[in-house]
Design a protein that fits this description.
TIM Barrel; binds iron/sulfur cluster; three-stranded mixed sheet; 3 domains; eight-stranded parallel β-barrel; 3-methyladenine DNA Glycosylase II, Chain A, domain 3; single chain; alpha/beta
Length: 444
């Protein structure tokens, strides 16, 4: 059971020496209780206290990092079974799989695609995460050459999929410092695979045919000195994946089986109906998902689903407040004020673009609340509008002093006029009517 900050504090050395990076032992205890720091940062803790605190304050699912640099990503460190209980923190990495028997041109094409392809949805850039390369040739030279081709083109997180330790070692000479994920240690080969993972500081996938086998294998691998593990459940059907991944998640987050407290790996490319398997993996706790390179429409659907599942349900998606341009607005262009709720922003922006009248959008910070909610909650006020006009230098962008506000903000119109000195025009409640409104009302 999770300990409260005061229970944790009782177990600390109480030196207030700051060596853990926190000003006092109590602050450190509060951070530990929230899972925001690590017991190992206090050098004065005795072994008994450390054992108790490690078992109760570490995230129930280990955080594992893949790759290094800008495109590296972390998986694991999740705390709940259902998203609505809190949130899911680390979206699964989706990696495109290629065989080392592919031609250099084919490998290059997939590498460039993963490196460059992205699409923007509600203000967030969505991308695939890396490449899984499979040693289907059985040859260490082929494997190493394929990886060299990728490494020369992009710094992307990699999964090296091989059953031959020699092939892995050959490949790791090209990417050992990039922390690729090694796939996969089994009960038969785990000692050799652990030695390789340790030597190169890489995370390791363990592959078992049952939950019990995986628990034993994780224990064996940590004894060998490899802590960053990811579990391949090797399911033969969708049902098997759901049962195993849900069982593991439940046992891990309740801390009933700490040996299962690791992220989950799913190779969707070997399952029937790969697209459905990807959807299942995103929804049911997979942290690394392997697929063949997806056609564009499927790729966007997978990334959209991932974004939705891994968006905090308690926080509205927000835009950065500021002055945004639609088209190339001049000094006489209209200024439309609205809130920083992403859906409001993108809906209004879309309708404004279709009017073909260049304009400014003044986006004020209502902490992501919609217009109606922000007005009701007092988050949208004349003071906020006045300060935003100043902060984003709107007065120097236009020569007029007219501000169009959303229809639902009409109760504030008088107060905004008084606070800002700008003439307020109340726009429509429905963004779909903004084109007609501007056509009829905006005259300069
Ligand atoms: S290092 Fe340990 S003793 Fe020192 S302040 Fe942090 S928790 Fe307290």
């Amino acid at each position: 059971m999770a300990l409260k900050a005061l229970d944790i504090y009782k177990l600390l050395p109480k030196k207030n020496c700051k060596e853990c990076g926190d000003p006092t032992c109590l602050t450190f205890a509060m951070k530990l209780a929230g899972g925001k720091t690590d017991v190992d940062l206090c050098p004065y803790m005795d072994d008994a206290a450390k054992a108790v605190l490690s078992a109760t304050t570490r995230p129930p699912i280990r955080l594992v990092k893949l790759g290094i640099g800008e495109r590296s990503f972390a998986v694991g460190e999740e705390f709940v079974l259902y998203r609505h209980e809190k949130t899911f923190y680390h979206p699964p990495g989706i990696m495109f799989k290629i065989a080392d028997t592919s031609t250099p041109e084919e490998i290059l094409a997939v590498t460039v695609r993963v490196r460059d392809e992205s699409f923007t949805r509600v203000g967030t850039e969505l991308r695939f995460n890396g490449i899984a390369i499979e040693n289907t040739s059985g040859s260490p030279e082929h494997f190493a050459r394929a990886i060299e081709t990728i490494e020369k083109t992009a710094d992307l997180p990699l999964v090296l999929m091989a059953s031959d330790p020699l092939a892995l070692s050959a490949a790791l000479t090209f990417c050992g410092t990039y922390r690729p994920l090694i796939h996969a240690a089994t009960p038969e080969n785990y000692k050799e695979f652990c030695a390789i993972a340790k030597q190169h500081g890489c995370p390791l996938v363990i592959k078992g045919k049952s939950v019990i086998e995986l628990a034993q294998l994780s224990k064996d691998c940590t004894t060998e000195g490899v802590q960053d593990l990811i579990m391949d459940l090797s399911p033969e059907s969708f049902q098997e994946f759901i049962v195993r991944s849900t069982t593991i998640r439940q046992l891990a987050i309740t801390r009933e089986a700490p040996d299962l407290g690791y992220p989950v790996f799913l190779d969707a490319s070997v399952m029937e109906m790969q697209d459905a398997a990807i959807t299942l993996g995103i929804s049911k706790y997979a942290s690394v998902i392997i697929s063949t390179p997806l056609p564009s429409a499927t790729a966007q659907a997978a990334l959209t689903l991932r974004q939705n599942i891994y968006t905090d349900p308690q926080k509205p998606i927000q835009m950065n407040p500021g002055l945004y341009r639609v088209g190339n607005p001049g000094k006489n262009a209209p200024v439309l004020m609205t809130v920083n709720f992403s859906l409001t922003f993108f809906t209004l922006q879309g309708y404004l673009e279709s009017t073909r009248l260049p304009c400014f959008m003044l986006i004020v910070d209502t902490e992501g609340l919609s217009v109606l909610t922000a007005v009701a909650a007092g988050k949208l006020s004349e003071v906020l509008v006045r300060d935003s006009i100043k902060k984003f230098d709107v007065e120097n962008e236009v020569s007029h002093r007219k501000l169009i506000i959303p229809g639902y903000a009409s109760p504030l119109s008088g107060r905004i006029e008084e606070a800002t000195g700008w003439k307020v025009m109340v726009g429509p409640r429905d963004a779909a009517e903004i084109g007609e409104f501007l056509h009829e009302e905006w005259k300069q």
